[in-house]
């Protein structure tokens, strides 16, 4: 496993894209909507890892609720895995609580699953596996 990306909740994706482009010295490489999660995302390369900016696209989305409760900031850490289903089973057997029972399609051509923050020291952890075409 490696750190695949850090997810950051933002109120204004366009303004945040400008801020991170200035900070990182490069433009984002992709903007993508994930309707099932009610979010618009933007990705930046940061060395071997990525920064994912997340803006709510509807008021009832997890990102909208996160920002309402905590404000903008780090939302999750995502780790790349070879076999997401095997990793989900392993972590569940170790006592981690999964937020979804099966992997679902996420942004940037990934299958994803989240671990409940209560089982990981208050950190929302995402597992992600590249979808092979």
TrEMBL record:
Say which domain of life the source belongs to: Bacteria
Q: Name one GO molecular function term.
A: lactoylglutathione lyase activity
A biological-process GO annotation:
L-methylmalonyl-CoA metabolic process
CDD domains, alphabetized? MMCE (cd07249)
Going by the record, the broad EC class of this enzyme is lyase
E.C. designation(s)? 4.4.1.5
Domain VOC: residue ranges: 2-130
Keyword set, alphabetical order: Coiled coil, Lyase, Metal-binding
Residues folding into a coiled coil are 74-101
- InterPro entries, sorted: Glyas_Bleomycin-R_OHBP_Dase, MeMalonyl-CoA_epimerase, MMCE/EMCE_epimerase, VOC_core
Q: Show the Pfam families listed in the entry.
A: Glyoxalase_4
Q: Which NCBIfam families match?
A: metmalonyl_epim
Family note: Belongs to the methylmalonyl-CoA epimerase family.
Protein's name according to its UniProt entry = Methylmalonyl-CoA epimerase
The source organism is Saprospira grandis (strain Lewin)
């Amino acid at each position: 496993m490696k750190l695949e990306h850090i997810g950051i909740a933002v109120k204004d994706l366009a303004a945040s894209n400008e801020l991170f482009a200035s900070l990182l010295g490069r433009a984002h490489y992709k903007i993508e909507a994930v309707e099932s999660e009610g979010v618009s995302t933007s990705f930046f390369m940061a060395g071997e890892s990525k920064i994912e900016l997340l803006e709510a696209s509807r008021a009832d989305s997890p990102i909208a609720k996160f920002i309402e409760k905590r404000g903008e900031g780090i939302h999750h850490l995502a780790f790349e895995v070879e076999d997401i289903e095997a990793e989900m089973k392993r972590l569940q057997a170790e006592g981690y609580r999964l937020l979804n029972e099966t992997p679902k399609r996420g942004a940037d051509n990934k299958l994803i699953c989240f671990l409940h923050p209560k089982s990981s020291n208050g950190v929302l952890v995402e597992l992600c596996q590249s979808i092979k075409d």
